[in-house]
Amino acid sequence: MGIQNFPAALQPIIQQGFLEREFETALKSRLGYRLIADREEFAVGIGETLTKTRAGLKPSVTIPLAAANNTNLDNGLTSTNWGVEQYTISLNFYAATQDLNMVTSRVGIASQFLQNAAINGEQAARSLDELARNALFAPYFGGNTRVNTTISSAGAAVSVDDIRGFQTVFVNGVQQAVSSTNPLTVTVGSNLYDVVGVTLDATNVSTAPNGISGQLLFSGNVTVADGTAGNAVQAATASAIVRPAQRNTTAALQATDTLSMANLLDAVALLRRNAVPLVDGLYNCYLDPVSARQLFSDPDFKQLFQGSTAANPVFRQGMVSDFLGLRFITTTEAYVQSHPGITGLYVRRPIVCGQGALIEGDFAGMDSSDVAPRDSLVQVIDGVAMVTREPIDRLQQIIAQSWYWIGGFCAPSDTTTTPNTVPTATNANYKRAVMIEHIG
Questions:
Q1: Has domain 145-236 been given CATH number 3.80.10?
Q2: Which of 114, 109, 112 is nearest to 18 (CA)?
Q3: What is the mean pLDDT of residues 314-332?
Q4: Per its UniProt entry, which superkingdom is the organism in (predicted)?
Q5: Quick one: pLDDT at residue 190?
Q6: Which residue, 74, 254, 391, 408, is the most exposed by fewest CB within 10 angstroms?
Q7: For the CA atoms of the chain, what is the radius of gyration?
Q8: What are the extents of the domains in the chain?
């Protein structure tokens, strides 16, 4: 039969005088973000969302009980309670498939069946890693943005680049929409204001990865000086973002603002201030190869290894390893964004994480007998179901190779850890990771 009679997708892999008998391995993305997630099983029969409650601490007692008050049944004491906070994991269904004609595949240069399985597996792993990345970064962008358009006169509405982190406040550990009853204190420019509402733009013009542009509505008028385009807008509970030269916004970064050892030390210090637990003795730092390379140009970094560069594996391999209390994990899935205002520059975002920065919920019923009968070809590998469906077409020639995953990711908050319970703690809602923004 002529090659032109085969489907176009199969024609390139049919042997035409080539000696190679197997597929070359394609370039693969280096993954890593899913590794920080604590895996939890999402039990069957409890709905599509799982709300977990975390108990907080009580403030320290540093004032002695007055002897004169140590009377009556209460001994002069007033009962106090510890706080709680909640976070929710939602189940979602992700899947992909590929068909294979077992007859036409016989004339291919290699086993398309095995190659399909390998490519499906890589696709599933990369998909889950990007889901983990998105869930990890979203709350750590929260509460940090800038004014998009200068207001013409003092007014209560200000257009901002990203409304994430301004839409809700925690009330008794539960997220509630901002309102006049539940306002959110925000610094715009140089002054404090209360956000009481948020509206989304009809057309999203946010420059932040997965950002949502919109307007913040305040309880009072914002001055023109504060509502000028480019000014920083930061919530009182904003997540910490470390930038070189103490830049206030992403757009304020300059060409010289590259990653330095000082930025990493600042991130570690913030996690330690909040008493964030270590991951097997270190904090994990996820960064792309350009960010890792910039460390070798940092004067402090070079001085740290001065006199031992020839024998040190860090310089022999051109790769940072474990130091500064950090475990460096390079990934090609990191966010790389064009600079919002300077052509040709890119913003890169390493993130330093402690234990519990991300939660993964895997649905326990993925391979149950009523979902995957015992005579079916369903294998659950690292939480992902790999499915091979037998031929059911008229000629019994076409099989389907698929994968699916049922689960979700979420970044839990730590609102109950405050300066009242941990004196060095910050007021950020999300404390278990610190994002670094730099030019690269």
A1: no
A2: 109
A3: 70
A4: Bacteria
A5: 94
A6: 74
A7: 27
A8: 145-236
